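Deviations from the work plan: none for this task. Representative record:
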Amino acid sequence: MMIHAYRSCFRNLRISLARNYASSSKLVDVSRDDKTGVSIISMSRAPVNGLNRELLVELERSLKEAQDERRRGVVLTSSLSNVFSGGLDIMEMFKKDAESMSKFWSALQDLYLTLYGLSVPIAAAINGSSPAGGCFLAMCCEYRVFVDGKHTIGLNETNLGIVAPKWFQNVMIATIGHRNAELALLRGTLFSPQEALRIGLVDELATDKADAISKCENYIASFARIPGTGRYLTKLGVRQELIQWMHDNREVDVNSFVTFAQTPEVQKNLELYVKSLKKR
Amino acid sequence: MMIHAYRSCFRNLRISLARNYASSSKLVDVSRDDKTGVSIISMSRAPVNGLNRELLVELERSLKEAQDERRRGVVLTSSLSNVFSGGLDIMEMFKKDAESMSKFWSALQDLYLTLYGLSVPIAAAINGSSPAGGCFLAMCCEYRVFVDGKHTIGLNETNLGIVAPKWFQNVMIATIGHRNAELALLRGTLFSPQEALRIGLVDELATDKADAISKCENYIASFARIPGTGRYLTKLGVRQELIQWMHDNREVDVNSFVTFAQTPEVQKNLELYVKSLKKR
Amino acid sequence: MMIHAYRSCFRNLRISLARNYASSSKLVDVSRDDKTGVSIISMSRAPVNGLNRELLVELERSLKEAQDERRRGVVLTSSLSNVFSGGLDIMEMFKKDAESMSKFWSALQDLYLTLYGLSVPIAAAINGSSPAGGCFLAMCCEYRVFVDGKHTIGLNETNLGIVAPKWFQNVMIATIGHRNAELALLRGTLFSPQEALRIGLVDELATDKADAISKCENYIASFARIPGTGRYLTKLGVRQELIQWMHDNREVDVNSFVTFAQTPEVQKNLELYVKSLKKR
């Protein structure tokens, strides 16, 4: 019994250590290039960079760090070979209690406010699939480079029987215009690289991840001679309405998410989706 | 004298009967295709589908019915051979009293709220001219297919010395962007099918009415696998600001319409227009 | 010593006279074509039509005059050969006291409200460089014709370490859309004529100034048959939100300008810029 307790304790300890290790250095990998002054922030939560609460918190922490360190800029990318981010981790809303879901959603709001209003230039090197929340993260950056090939990008929430939150929708409207956004949101369109370029959802295509990162670094380098404060205030000006919307609606938004996610219809759709994932 | 009175009375009766008949079954013709689940709602008020109060009410009733019956979708079109809709019936604002004009305008607002926020997919098969209010109805749908040829579409109110209401303007801005909408509204531009396609005022061209309806049905069918509730909430999200604007401004909007329509300058412009119509 | 004082006084007098002369008849030159009914308003403050308070006031006065005289329309252009306007006169914010800066900024707001809401058609014949405030004036018109060649146009404020005011930003967003405006504002992009045309920042190119004015006159003539009141109310409708914003934010906007302009960082950036101008 003592031995068993010891083992159990030891095992918990190992898990706990593993988790700490992961949260400090593996959910998000940060690489600083001191020649260019750019930080490369890579999401590293296999298998698909599902945005669970831990990853959201870790990502926001890394962004704030780059901001506090006054880096020249940030490239947001993924350590995984075929996916930028698969979006919000469905398991954070499937059969969860209200408090847990509230905390998850608040972390998403925090990340949004930090990412969308980041003081330093930030570009997304989209090196794989980027549905739903993955597309949203990319749209919150200032510039998007998509690796050409078979992967797609878009807010495809309607396909899962759920709804892209109002602020996801608004960021898409700001990116590709009202008409294109409406149609894309209703259809849950996942755009090919060529289509995404044509519609303005991404700014450039790249041949591979290295090329995408290099093009993002070029974007950041284009601001080398532009004073940072004026640039930052300009960004806040252009993005002011959407940022203010979130400050004005945080609580309402959390509650409407939790209420919606708990409806039987949504839970049923999520269940079907989770089952389909397991079959793959 | 008696005979004359009798004849006059009889003639009025016939007109009245014709009107009742029209209002109950002919102002709007609804055809349900049970294979596709689509309702085809056709405006049928000769000669130009002028949007008088009766037609507005009847149209809204048909849309609500399709919504309540949870149809797969709706195609909005016209039973007339050369016109989708000629827009608001000028006779509803020419030499009318304030109460009558208020009721007319309220009916237009009601139709807008139902049409712009319709829960099921709706596409316009624009099979003829679509000026002013006709263009507005089409823009409130989710998708527009225009029969190629000599007909035109646009908010041409300034040409008549009147003003497209703020909400007509806003729906146009949402459809083709602020810059294009401003120029089109100032000029009262009526776009050819090719121009309308290029500027995004319509989404596809068709060879004839049947082709237009078929393309609208394809649009509706593209949502076959998309759960309805999430899709509907997404639509309400994207259209929220404009819908909210109307809820917040119904009374002000009615009053400003009535006040504007009653100004001598507008009445004079309407009179010139009515005379020019009679000369044709 | 007496002689020196006398000379100094005489020199000041000459400068003062020159200034008065300029402010009454030469800062802005107005030419009325009675055949077309168009007023051509030309900014004439050498060397670069720097928008100091005097020029702002004079320009607004000329616009109001054209409006009161119910001219067919206005062409805004420059009397200088290589510049439309170099934008706000930096000397109005460099080492100035708060009161002086407030008056300057209020004059800019007044001009904006008159120009952006002008009741008669107005087009800009951009016959030279048009950075910052110069670009802003052009964007406030209804139509822009840019003389093709080596000159550029854009809101390049971030390059000077300053910030295009929120309302400059909003007018740019209304002109070229949110995404294009954000990127242009962050980068402080100065667009070539071809690029400006492609992105929609101008509507036509011209071979020279006479051609630009002629194309602006064609724009104005296109409204010959459109009643003025409905056209004007339509314009106010489309531009309502931005005009209302200014009415709601005049004081806050003045204060935030003065506060920002007085920060050491901005004053330092302005000093560097002023020095670089003197070296040319």
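The interface with chain A takes residues 157-166, 169, 173, 177-179, 181-183, 185-188, 260, 265-266, 269 of chain C (CB under 8 Å).
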